[in-house]
């Protein structure tokens, strides 16, 4: 229900347009996920998301021929059906309440949303002054990246490897940093090889928003809290431990409360408790 900020091509926040959700498309053969955010959850926006997904698939030689979805109006509408018929594509629907009939996509949605929610909670605990729920699209996009690139322990291959039929260099994991952590960006004057006055700061503090999809893995997206702009930067230093920002102890949650200890239910990925 929380609306997310919509960023223009230059990184500025468009206050009159907000994301209200998104379309998450999952390849059943490889579990590769792709997210397209939408300002409105209607057929027109969903078709735009589908088109963007098919363009991405085409770059890797993949041609989607059939779809499985829930019974949302965006998928069952006449416009969506006409579009599929035009391109001779097939769609099947899961039964009402039968999420297991589209288990791959439903499980991917659950995992990605849990990752993004955890990252936002982690940032809110360590840096509450800048925590903003409307930044959820950036957290979800980074969670999708992690979901696609973390390898399966059984095979050593990631969903990205299977989908693209290539091997992603796992050394690039060193380029990943904590989402929402402070990032110190070198002032442009110094990065251009010029000098600054002696007592002028050499950097300014921004917020890590994940990796840029249009740059190398060493180029992150950072949010400038003063201007509200998200830009790709290279000359940066990350504070993964939030050591350069302070959090008031009174604002921290009670980590011993049942609500916190049972946040993820019976997930097997929780830290096990010692019976002794």
Number of strands: 11
User: How do the strands line up in the largest sheet?
Assistant: 10-9-8-7-11
Proportion of beta-strand residues: 15-25%
Element-by-element helix/strand order = EEEEHEHHEHHHEHEEEEH
Query: Fraction of residues in helices?
Result: 25-40%
Distance between the termini: 43 Å
- What class, by secondary structure content? alpha+beta
Uncertain residue ranges: 6-16
Number of H- or I-type helical stretches: 8
Q: Rg from C-alpha positions?
A: 21 Å
Largest sheet: 5 strands, antiparallel
General form: globular
Mean pLDDT: 88
Oligomeric grouping of the chains: single chain
Write the layout of secondary structure elements.
Layout: E1 4-7, E2 13-19, E3 21-26, E4 33-38, H1 43-59, E5 66-69, H2 73-76, H3 78-86, E6 90-93, H4 103-126, H5 136-149, H6 159-164, E7 182-186, H7 188-191, E8 203-211, E9 220-224, E10 229-232, E11 236-238, H8 258-261
Parallel strand pairs: 5-6
Antiparallel strand pairs: 1-2, 3-4, 7-8, 7-11, 8-9, 9-10
Helix pairs in contact: 4-5
Overview of this structure, please?
- The protein has 276 residues and is α+β, with helices and mostly antiparallel strands.
- The protein contains 8 helices and 11 strands.
- The strands form 4 sheets. Strands 10-9-8-7-11 form a 5-stranded antiparallel beta sheet.
- A hairpin with an 8-residue loop joins strand 8 and strand 9.
- Helix 4 crosses helix 5 (136-149).
- The chain is globular.
- The relative contact order is 0.11.
